[in-house]
Amino acid sequence: MVSKKHSRNLVVVLGDQLNHDSAAFDGFDINLDVVWMAEAAEEATHVWNHQYRLVAFFSPMRHFRDEMEGSGKQVLYHELSADAAADRGSSLSDLLRETLNTRHFDQVIMVHPGDHRVREALHQCVQATGVTLEEREDRTFFCSLDRFQRWADGRKSFVLEQFYRVMRKEHQVLMQDEKNPVGDAWNFDKENRGKFGKAGPGEIPEPPSFKPDRVTKDVMAMVSDRFGDHPGSLAQFDLPVNRKQALEMLEDFVVHRLPLFGTYQDAMWSDERFLYHSRLSHAMNLKLLSAYEVVQAAVERFETGQSQINSVEGFVRQILGWREYVRGIYWTQMPQYAKLNALSCERSQKVPDFFWDGKTKMACVADAMRLLLDTAYAHHIQRLMVLGLYAQLLGVHPEAFNDWHLAMYADAIDWVSLPNTLGMSQHADGGIMATKPYCASGSYIDRMGNFCKGCVYSPKKATGDDACPMTTLYWDFLIRHRDRFRDNHRMVMQYKNLDRKDPAEINAISDRASQIKSGAIIV
Fold first, then answer.
1. Which of 22, 50, 167, 307 is placed for a possible disulfide with 301 were both Cys, Cβ 3.0 to 4.6 Å?
2. What are the tens digits of pLDDT across the range 314-360?
3. Which domain covers residue 377, as residue numbers?
4. In whole angstroms, what is the distance from residue 339 CA to residue 96 CA?
5. pLDDT value at residue 190
6. Is residue 230 part of a domain?
7. Do 166 and 131 share a structural domain?
């Protein structure tokens, strides 16, 4: 009998853990330890992944593998090929089990994964083989999961602003002293709602565009051959695939877009791709950049007088506040969180077809979908107040919406996707994250962008052939959920406006909404 080859530690590195200073490598010995990485078919197909998203994960993984091998580490790497029949196993756990059955390791080491499903599967796999598993903290976040749990314990509600202030104080970010924030305010949100005038945003420097190298081209060819029926396009792929490129993108953002980011972070404009947004979330979520260095880069621009406080604080709030907060919500509320459906949406209500192909007459949705199909990206207002809003008003089942979001965005990992979709966007968690649903009519979109002027629909109309579907569905949403929300103090005015409508108009709105939801009216 041939004995198994023996090594000390098998260090598992997942596709969103591409940092060389990872806790997984603490104590790593190139003579004793081995790194394990895998491209798994299940990760490409458990949702109908955008082709761009697949390249945005697999290419950085291969670059990271090459860097580790260049530093002397032995890497066991499973690479997907264009031929599905050539795969030995479809899931990460299948592939890891095969490795553990053919080689002997004293211990498996991994950093806490970003997906509950993946974590459970890997834990079960290693446990079944009898090998010891050591799971280490992900140090790329400001707030450890234990720290968030201590903050959350005993609270009836999880208010972002309260958490954000704790983080600011603990990490001394934008603070005058231990207790007081710079600018004598914790939050400059009121200065973050600027709109472009009639002339539009003007000239905004384009962010760096990284031409695909040989490794990326190989991945693109594999994805095109094997997953060519998946949504989206690869023609404009230009994301950073290694740390050097990610750092270049960070530097470009803080110099060219951060100064006006805060003012215009909620604004939209047709045919503009990125405006003043950073597009750094992909690199951060794959750990090509850490939250610490991104926040520090922004703070330094304020401290040197090169960016105003409303921009820097608004950007810091998204990372030190929101990003850390949603991760804490995810891990303290899972697995039951994924099944929440507070608005009782029907499972049969899927995302509309134009969420996959962009074919709709709604100008705002069509514009957001063009960007999404081309780049697997949309900024937070397009996600929340255009695409997310339409899904909420339509009554899309929250699980279906999250699956779509996870499939379509290059930066989507379950820990960040699920709270943002199910909680913030769809209000399916019943108020764990937000005290009211983010529901609005087409008039909001009209205020924040220029889409409505060239659209076949009127944002002010809820009935009639030219009524904006957003507006029709908005009033229908309020009608359907009257008992749940009419006493919500943040929605009093919305329900007062609804109460002014006469019964005939209410019936007409409900009838048109039913036709939109059934597909009888093609929007």
1. 307
2. 999 999 999 999 999 999 999 999 999 999 999 999 999 999 999 99
3. 354-518
4. 28
5. 84
6. no
7. no
